[in-house]
């Protein structure tokens, strides 16, 4: 069949769709193309099956295997073979299938295989990296990773990918880690490396003839070289050259450092990596550093040495201040919290080594004859500085995305303003102590994004221990670490392993292995291979297309709840959520609660929801009581007849999350949300508070007995109450909410009886009916004001409950068709009123519910129009007469006392005359208040006449002349 197409559609669950187009079909064979050294082989016929895995991975499966032309020599691969999967089992199966593939195809092109694995496969969460120089070695290493018996003994060395982007710390090794022929295989395998070394040799060849080296870097790195790589004049530029090569190779692979720190001479390459130095300038600085190191010696020509010690910087510094060692020994490097390097005279070094060994501390003399970073280097400084001054070295301006460089000389971030980067800095780098650990600390504190990988650029990862120890001590985290070369190991393999480790952590978006292979070996033409093993599907796992949310909805215990709705699947053991769609048509009794004609979810509905959720939270255990505390209702839920209102009920911080028989109390925080308005998609907070559930069977003594009934209660007409509440206040009660049967009140108190509405067969039987409890709030309105007296005229609603306590068992056993209610007004704050409500069974026999600290607040903030004008003022005064308080410190003089008695005597005379001269007929016609005055005067007259007054009895017979005589005085 030719020139035809077939199209297949598949529509899966939840929008999972697939569309496959088959361009053509060849029934006899399907050609798998394998590339070996750029040659294509098309001579193998195989049946080929297109599967979902092959489509996802960009390959098809060759059932019978593929064998390429094995006579063609194997090409050099520079990158690792990378694999990934979502599970350990799948990853092991993938490795095992590739092992079988390699057994069938021993002559496969390794560069193309590595290229295909790194560029044409998805990078899944579990990753594996293996390097091998031949197909047989790759097969052997896969077998080693899987175990001896690949069918029964699966082991995994996979790495979990990091979700964060790379934040890599570059560490640059100082002199001393070098070894013969290091990097020589990179020179042989990668033409770019030879070009880099040639350019560096050209820079050294441009030095003055009396300084110019007689050797070349490529020649010294050769395996046949006879040069001594321990000689500073050779080792120093050689180490820097290798580090420059490694930096360029990392850049070619897409690896970028966020920050770099160099140890001793490693700072030269670190400056190059941070774009502060060019490669030609860096190699010249390194060459002169090693060239003049031969001049190092003590003040008296003493030979130098160095020792590595496992102790703190403070202990090492104190040792150097000892009488026998002062001025002869110095802390040359602070490597980590427990690692230092000492430098100085050889005999001082030996003495220090003996002291450390006596203290049972690690101490190892370094194989150097130069005391770097000590006074011995002072002899090298002038010629080194002079030589650098004669060079045309210029520090560069790094780009904004260049790595940050943190100096181990000055323990600070290096900028273009840092002085001496062209000359003096490098002299200080040789003479001053290496503040490596402080520089690491400064780097970690200064870089905003935390490091998640560290790469040591150098001949050997000699600083891995100090760096990991330092980072662990400073951040309490152990980040991944990799070297770039390994002493005595194959250079290509060591660098490929480093790239593989970085790829395993961050993936192809940040490490482009395919581009690295093509850049470094453009002569090897690689292509994507077909016919490789596809991603192994784990068939022993059931893949039923049902989401977790669907499972929870379909299999959760219990039926749909009229108030709470359905349990949400995204909750945890200590976080429970329910989602409900409220509608007055679905829950008929809701339509009887209205504010200004609009159906509003009642406050008692929230209380009922919390009580129902508290019972579910107890997970079947016996509940003694439920306390709802600090319940706040900041926003009401408005219901619409033609639209459902979505509400979410949330219990958070449930403690304990899983109760048992020993649990006494459970607690949780409560929040209820709903859609803010009909046109909104945002959720609004409608109710919040906390709930405390006491477990057990001791519920009989939870409530105190009823207080004595309030006397002199006045009956209130129930119909008149509902009419006033609707017309003057705006609160409409109908249906189940119009259940009050009687009302009694006096100022501050109310008592009522109300019907307890029943639940229909189709409704969820709640612990209590919200409409019944709402009648308790209606009785509280009567305690606040008499219907129609004008004191309650604005639209109000409950906004806060300090405490609500209910006894589930009493509600189940004792609740009657009619309930009794006591309500009490406790306080008034402006337009806000406070009160308490208690609900009893009929006849006040058993208390069922207590509501305390209920706050009734205006729906709309009050304005001046709501003010009532009161003709009164507040006067602060004692509540009873207190002469001593009134007198204070005042004392009457004898003359004032005489005058007071005289005034009393005159007043008594006229009061007596008033009583004696007013006839009964005149007295009967006087106003009531004047009759009261005469009664009081008459009482006083009888008291004086009967000699019962304590001082006025002698005045009973006073005449007018006596009084006038007193007035004259």
SSE diagram, text form:
Blueprint (H helix, E strand, L loop, with lengths): L5 E6 L5 E6 L11 E3 L2 E3 L6 E2 L2 H6 L3 E2 L18 E5 L2 H17 L5 H10 L6 E5 L4 H12 L12 E2 L7 E5 L11 H6 L1 H15 L11 H5 L10 H21 L6 E4 L3 H8 L5 H14 L11 E6 L3 H8 L8 E8 L2 E7 H13 L4 E3 L15 H10 L13 E4 L4 E2 L10 H8 L4 H11 L6 E5 L6 H12 L4 E4 L7 H16 L6 H8 L27 H8 L10 E2 L8 E7 L10 E3 L2 E2 L3 H15 L5 E10 L12 E11 L9 E11 L7 E13 L18 E3 L1 H12 L1 E3 L6 E7 L2 E7 L14 H15 L11 E11 L1 H7 L3 E12 L2 E10 L5 E12 L24 H5 L6 H24 L2 H6 L2 H18 L14 H9 L1
Parallel strand pairs: 10-11, 10-18, 11-16, 18-19
Antiparallel strand pairs: 1-2, 3-4, 5-6, 7-8, 8-9, 12-14, 12-15, 13-14, 16-17, 20-21, 21-25, 22-23, 22-29, 24-27, 24-32, 25-26, 26-27, 28-30, 30-31, 31-33, 32-35, 33-34, 34-35
Question: Outline of this structure?
Answer:
The chain has 969 residues and is of the alpha+beta class. The protein is 33% helix and 21% strand.
CATH level 4 superfamily of the largest domain: Malonyl-Coenzyme A Acyl Carrier Protein, domain 2
CATH topology of the largest domain: Malonyl-Coenzyme A Acyl Carrier Protein, domain 2
Secondary structure category: alpha+beta
What level of helicity do the residues show? 25-40%
What gap, in angstroms, lies between the N and C termini? Answer: 148 Å
**Unreliable runs, pLDDT <50, ≥5 residues?**
28-74, 148-155
Largest sheet: 13 strands, antiparallel
For the residues shown, what is the average pLDDT?
86
Q: How many beta-strand segments?
A: 35
């Amino acid at each position: 069949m030719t020139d035809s197409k077939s199209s297949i559609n598949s529509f899966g669950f939840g929008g999972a769709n697939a569309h496959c187009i088959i361009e053509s079909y060849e029934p006899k064979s399907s050609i798998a193309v394998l590339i070996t050294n750029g040659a294509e082989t098309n001579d193998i016929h195989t049946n080929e099956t297109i599967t979902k895995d092959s489509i996802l991975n960009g390959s098809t499966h060759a059932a019978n295997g593929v064998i390429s032309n094995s006579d063609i020599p194997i090409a050099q691969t520079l990158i690792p073979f990378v694999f990934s999967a979502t599970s350990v089992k799948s990853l092991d199966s993938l490795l095992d299938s590739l092992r079988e593939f390699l057994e069938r195809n021993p002559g496969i092109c390794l560069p193309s295989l590595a290229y295909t694995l790194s560029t044409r496969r998805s990078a899944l969460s579990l990753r594996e990296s293996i390097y091998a120089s031949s197909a047989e070695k790759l097969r052997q290493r896969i077998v080693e990773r899987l175990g001896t018996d690949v069918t029964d003994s699966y082991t995994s060395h996979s790495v979990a990918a990091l979700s964060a982007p790379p934040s890599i710390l570059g560490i640059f090794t100082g002199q001393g880690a070098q070894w013969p022929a290091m990097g020589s295989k990179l020179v042989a395998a990668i033409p770019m490396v030879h070009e880099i070394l040639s350019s560096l040799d050209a820079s050294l060849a441009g030095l003055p003839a009396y300084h110019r080296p007689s050797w070349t870097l490529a020649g010294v790195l050769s395996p046949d070289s006879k040069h001594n790589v321990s000689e500073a004049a050779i080792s120093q530029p050689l180490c820097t050259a290798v580090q420059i090569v490694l930096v360029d190779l990392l850049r070619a692979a897409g690896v970028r450092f966020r920050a770099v720190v160099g140890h001793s001479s490693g700072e030269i390459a670190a400056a190059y990596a941070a774009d502060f130095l060019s490669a030609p300038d860096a190699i010249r600085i390194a060459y002169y550093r090693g060239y003049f190191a031969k001049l190092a010696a003590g003040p008296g020509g003493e030979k130098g040495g160095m020792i590595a010690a496992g102790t703190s910087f403070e202990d090492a510094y104190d040792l150097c201040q000892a009488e026998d060692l002062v001025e002869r020994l110095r802390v040359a490097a602070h490597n980590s919290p427990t690692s230092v390097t000492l430098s100085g005279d050889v005999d001082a070094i030996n003495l220090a080594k003996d002291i450390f060994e006596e203290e049972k501390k690690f101490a190892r003399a370094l194989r150097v004859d130069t005391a770097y970073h000590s006074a011995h280097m002072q002899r090298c400084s002038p010629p080194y500085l002079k030589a650098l001054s004669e060079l045309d070295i210029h520090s560069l301006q790094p780009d904004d995305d260049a790595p940050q460089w943190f100096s181990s000389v000055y323990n600070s971030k290096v900028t273009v303003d840092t002085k001496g980067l062209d000359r003096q800095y490098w002299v200080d780098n040789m003479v001053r102590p290496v503040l490596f650990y402080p520089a690491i600390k400064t780097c970690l504190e200064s870089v905003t994004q935390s490091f998640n990988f560290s790469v040591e650029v150098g001949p050997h990862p000699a600083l891995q221990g100090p760096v990991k120890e330092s980072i662990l001590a400073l951040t309490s985290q152990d980040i991944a670490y990799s070297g770039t070369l390994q002493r005595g190991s194959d250079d290509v393999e060591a660098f490929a392993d480093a790239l593989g480790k970085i790829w395993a952590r961050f993936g192809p978006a940040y490490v482009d292995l395919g581009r690295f292979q093509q850049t470094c070996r453009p002569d090897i033409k690689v292509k994507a291979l077909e016919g490789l093993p596809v991603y192994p599907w784990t068939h022993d796992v059931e893949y039923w297309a049902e989401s977790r949310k669907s499972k929870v909805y379909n299999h959760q215990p219990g039926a749909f709840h009229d108030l709470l709705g359905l349990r949400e699947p995204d909750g945890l053991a200590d976080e429970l959520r329910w989602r409900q769609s409220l509608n007055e048509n679905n829950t008929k009794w809701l339509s009887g609660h209205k504010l200004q004609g609009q159906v509003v979810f009642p406050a008692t509905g929230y209380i009922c929801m919390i009580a129902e959720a508290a019972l579910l939270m107890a997970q079947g255990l016996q509940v003694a009581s439920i306390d709802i505390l600090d319940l706040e209702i900041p926003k009401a839920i408005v219901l619409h007849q033609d639209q459902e209102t979505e509400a979410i009920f949330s219990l958070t911080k449930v403690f304990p999350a899983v109760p048992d028989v020993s649990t006494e109390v459970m607690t949780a925080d409560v929040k209820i949300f709903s859609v803010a308005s009909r046109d909104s998609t945002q959720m609004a907070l409608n109710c919040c508070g906390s709930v405390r559930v006491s477990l057990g069977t001791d519920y009989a003594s939870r409530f105190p007995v009823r207080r004595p009934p309030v006397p002199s209660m006045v009956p209130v007409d129930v119909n008149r109450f509902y009419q006033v509440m609707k017309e003057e206040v705006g609160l409409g009660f109908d249906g189940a909410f119009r259940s009050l049967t009687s009302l009694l009140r006096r100022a501050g108190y109310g008592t009522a009886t109300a019907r307890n509405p029943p639940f229909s067969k189709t409704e969820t039987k709640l612990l209590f009916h919200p409409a019944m409890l709402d009648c308790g709030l209606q009785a509280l309105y009567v305690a606040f004001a008499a219907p129609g007296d004008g004191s309650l005229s604005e639209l109000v609603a409950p906004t806060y409950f300090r405490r609500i306590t209910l006894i589930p068992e009493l509600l189940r056993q004792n609740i009657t068709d009619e309930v009794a209610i006591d309500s009490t007004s406790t306080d008034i704050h402006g337009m806000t009123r406070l009160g308490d409500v208690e609900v009893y069974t009929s006849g006040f026999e058993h208390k069922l519910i207590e509501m305390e600290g209920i706050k009734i607040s205006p729906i709309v903030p009050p304005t001046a129009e709501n003010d009532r004008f009161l003709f009164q003022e507040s006067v602060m005064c004692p509540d009873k007469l207190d002469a001593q308080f009134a007198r204070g410190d005042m004392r009457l003089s004898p003359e004032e006392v005489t005058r007071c008695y005289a005034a009393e005597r005159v007043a008594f005379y006229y009061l007596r005359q008033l009583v004696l001269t007013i006839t009964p007929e005149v007295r009967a016609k006087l106003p009531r208040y004047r009759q009261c005055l005469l009664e009081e005067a008459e009482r006083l007259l009888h008291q004086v006449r009967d000699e019962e007054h304590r001082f006025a009895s002698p005045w009973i017979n006073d005449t007018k002349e006596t009084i006038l005589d007193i007035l004259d005085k």
